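User: Fold this, then the next.

Assistant: Folding the first:
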Amino acid sequence: MTNVDIVGLGKTRMSLRPSPSGDATPVQLAARAARAALADADIGHRDVDGLLVGSSQGVRPDRLGVGFAAQGGFGDLRLLEHVEIKGATTVAMIQRARHAITAGEASTVMCVFADAPLVAGKGSGSAYAHSGGNAGARGLERASGLLGSVPTYALLAQRWLHVTGNGAEDLCAVATTARRWAEGNPDAVNREPLDEDGYHSSPMISEPLRRLDCARPVNGAVAIVLTGARAIGTSRVRVRGTGREHPVRRRRAGAESWFGGGRRAVDDALGQAGMRRGDLDVAQLYDPFTIVTLILLDEYRLTGNAPAGEFVRTGQLGPDGALPTNTGGGQLSGFYLQGMTPLAEAVIQLRGDGGARQVPGATTALVGGIGGRMDHHAALVLERAA
């Protein structure tokens, strides 16, 4: 079987403000990240024969699509697709690229995600507040005041805390741990030290979620180059396994429908890689809210026999912990660029490029992505290539 490696990583600056000059549309950001990834792999546009693009959900005029092939300077492609499974999109793109390369449908594939939800004169959450539309169950939710993801994830958090017996101190531990990692990440948008007092002074947005329990949108882009060709790239991270699971939730009375599911995605990815959970050096999990980190730790069985809250409170996600997790600050303190955030950090760690936040000796990583209200799960196992 052909080995498929990540050989190029390109990022833009992650911005918490819209560009005053209007030169930071998703297409423009994607082009910058793509050029950086090509330079990192030491190849040109003509060396790429596959292009996969991902964008934030919702129909927006500036949404990144397959038109980026021409806009970004690509041509004569054997593979060109727009992939959209919400927060699971990035891992799905890597999975698709791997399949294409191993099947001989393409030899070198670029995956790129870009978003620019921050627009002058509008609130940072306005781009996401109307996601899901106004019809059906979503329309009923909107009529009841559930606008965007924060109140719906707050309901999920309340239910999970009730079922498990955990408390708000566990949410705090996730937030402060993510911030400690972000202090060593020059790309992080939130690097100021954060302690428990700082967390509890954060305004309550939708109980039990405070402002610091929520990721902040950014304008930015990340691009990844994958190939099966040994002659391309000098720093290689191998795709060892992938997996997905889509619970297809039906939120109806009489059934638990808020969480659960996703473990099979991790099991499949580890099975392909021939690894066990104890073989993982780092984990990079999709963390739009602190509660998601806790749920995924439990659901993916990453804590051994310890409850997720105890695992986090005792420092096991931190620099000296059993499973360093979201080592760039994740989406909570690093930057929220959907599934590209955990993937980029995994590549950085496995290359040994983490600087002050580098996990010594890290050679294997789990990358997790979720979509919707934990409706879609995608997992990726990576390993530093010899």
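Now the next one, as you asked:
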Amino acid sequence: MDIMANTLLAIGASPAMVHAEEEVEEFVTLASALLINIGTLSTPWIRSMHRAAAKAQELGKPWVLDPVGAGATSLRTNTATDLVVSYKPTVIRGNPSEIMALAKSICKGLDLQPSDGAQKGVDSSQSSDHALGPAKALAKECCCVVVVTGEHDFVTDGSSVITVSNGHPILTKITAAGCTLTAVLAAFVSLGDPTDVTHVIKSCACALSIFGIAAELAVEDPIAKGPGSVRMRMLDTYGRFNAQTLLEREKISFPS
């Protein structure tokens, strides 16, 4: 929660980390977008997630799901599946194993092997290229945008695919890097109409690129010596980010 909140503040968003059943609906009413991250699960928190997603759906507000560890345990897979099926997220962002596990759970008839979607704890055991087909199937089945992140990141609405290649391998050594990225996606998606698929997929692509560029700049900083210092230097990079930085460094491939 700490690094997610600090990153949101650094990019100009205003975060609130909320999980009490008694107030989640009020906060969704106030918020521009909802992010549900299932990284920490308990029965009361799951009830709060359902209440928050239902409120976002009722109000027509964008909401983003991070299915952390889906495929690792039945509780995580079932919780993510229930949220997707019941409340139709605007965006699902996960690593390859998480996306494949969700696709296997939701998309009936999808041809996946028993090991597909297997997790190493909450880390992926698959490549993003391997997960692209299931990601497209999941997006089409759920009428949402799916973002699968890895060596290359993919954004798909089930038919078109945008590829983003910014980033650095050191991100795999930083706890909550993926969770933080999902928070940035939610902030970007909140800036427009969540029913406009073009806005949603382009917002996700830009968020992926900016997050990846921040990692690249942090690694290039001579003060950065490893995952711990890169984590902090990433926060510093957002303050000196501008349109020119994005234009010079973005690696976004739109469909031809």
